[in-house]
Amino acid sequence: MKADERWSGVYSFEDSPFIMEVLTELRDKNTDSIAFRKGLVKLGRYMGYELTKTMDIEEVDVKTPLEKTKGVIVRDRRNVVIITVLRAAIPLMEGLIKVFEHARVGIVSASRGKAPKFEIEMNYIKIPDLRPEDTVIVADPMIATGSTLIKVLGEIEKYGKPKRKIVLGVLAAPEGISRIKEQFPEVEIFVAKVDRELNEKGYILPGLGDAGDRAFGAP
Ligand code: URA
């Protein structure tokens, strides 16, 4: 995990060869839907493992069949709420939930309008109440303009004040990160990689194309 010096609280997993290999497969235009979905599940799982490194741990006593020793509990792992931004985050959530098996899950459906405004419509919102001990992970593979996430993060504020708010994505454009950080400086952002820029249609470059279309084989 590497802190990005351009912002505070933004981290990439560029230092993880495994995560970079999965990302390479996702970028490849010849990767089919089945492999693409599997890749997103893998990233959810491995980025989830990485996230546990940022969580508080508690030392506990444990008795093996042979003797007493010390062990650990990642207490915050038990207080995770995953907010799934439809549709491309579904496979990412499937991976995350393997690490955060106790997680409560919220679903948000948002669609992005056309250029140049890219206005966001929230079509469906189901978010559990948020407790002070919760870590909220908003899963959205592609942080492009940041507009969807800004809407979702604004909505989340109505459900309570959690301990941490995290956005977990695969790729981000610097423009999107800056916009989110301006409005929600307390939100931590974790992505496999921060890419170069957005094109005029709002796609991340070099990117991987439309994550939803590629995962589900349907534009
Ligand atoms: N959403 C995607 O799926 N891909 C992009 O490049 C930008 C937004």
Automatic annotation (TrEMBL):
It is an enzyme of class 2 (transferase). InterPro entries: PRTase-like, PRTase_dom, Upp_A, UPRT. Binds 1 Mg(2+) ion per subunit. The magnesium is bound as Mg-PRPP. The keyword Zinc does not apply. It comes from the Archaea. One of its GO terms (molecular function) is magnesium ion binding. Residues 15-217 form the Phosphoribosyltransferase domain. Keywords: Allosteric enzyme, Glycosyltransferase, GTP-binding, Magnesium, Nucleotide-binding, Transferase. Pathway: Pyrimidine metabolism; UMP biosynthesis via salvage pathway; UMP from uracil: step 1/1. Its EC number is 2.4.2.9. Its cofactor is Mg(2+). Uracil binds at I204, G209, D210, A211. Pfam families: UPRTase. It catalyses: UMP + diphosphate = 5-phospho-alpha-D-ribose 1-diphosphate + uracil. 5-phospho-alpha-D-ribose 1-diphosphate binds at R87, R112, D140, P141, M142, I143, A144, T145, G146, S147, T148, D210. NCBIfam families: PRK00129.1, upp. Catalyzes the conversion of uracil and 5-phospho-alpha-D-ribose 1-diphosphate (PRPP) to UMP and diphosphate. Belongs to the UPRTase family. This is Uracil phosphoribosyltransferase. It comes from Thermococcus gorgonarius.
